[in-house]
Amino acid sequence: MKLFFSLALFAAFLLFPAACADGVRNGLSLAAGQALPALFPFFLASGLLVRSGLAQALTRLAARPLARLYHLPSSAAPAVILGLTGGYPVGTATTVDLLRQGVLSRDTAERVNTFCNCASPGFCIGLAGLGIFGSARTGATLYGIHILTALLTGLLVARPAQYTPETETSAPQDRTPTQSFSAVFCAAVQQAAATALTVTAFLTVFCVLLRLAQPVLSYFPYGNALSGMLELTSGLDALHTVPLPSRVKLTLTSFLLGFGGLAVQFQARALAEPAGLPMHGFAACKLLHGAMAAALTALITRISPAALPAFAPMGNAASQRHYPIFFLILLLMLFTIWSGKKAKNKI
Question: Which pTM does this prediction carry?
């Protein structure tokens, strides 16, 4: 199978050089104009947190919720927090750093990586909210749904079958010798540059593949909406012009943000596999994340369109009162699932 795909790609590159060149230009433009400006600071922050000891404050704050909800050690806090806020693939990059430093065990790192890879708030608000729906608040709501379903995915797939309180201290501790800030900073910058290069390469490659697949996608109704399954940024740009109802677009956008696209998933694999971080079931977890986000978005738009600002009447203050109610309902759902799992563990 791998020989077939290799020959097919080689033939496509030979037969369609102009399309490949267009894909490379588009990929490099997306990387320079959108991806790296949003992600590179978080790549650097991830390295600094892991190497400088700043992560210790995060571990103390997150120790109890990580242990109770996900049966994870407090040392996983930097990967979880940066993964939920930093954008793709900061979560995997931070997890790999923690694994290499000996702070996380391989099993714990694998469990963390199943749910801590999310789109950044800037990406959700800027590209999804403003770019597609003309509403920053809709983008912020999508980000809230995105993060909530990521946390729910972690409850479903990241908790071990058996857990004892001693599990938190079983992970190897960081034995890295004390370094000066200049050494830590240089190492973090080098690691951030390597990660940025990986992201740029995969983004460019998948833009080439998307450009080659464009004639095939054009034969399908709303085929452009499927391009986000390959490359998220291009897919969301294409979704803006697809003639679909706003609620359908919103649901598709929510799914694509959760799934991330194959380009994002291969970026995560490229970072994880050299470090020995297993990726078993990673694609299935992202598919579950996307499906849950889409279902929750469709439910909210069905029950109360005013809960999402893009569908709320302009100047209708009463409709805005429904906005925080649904976040309270979602938090109640999260607590109910956690309580049910806790009771089940006691049986």
Answer: 0.76
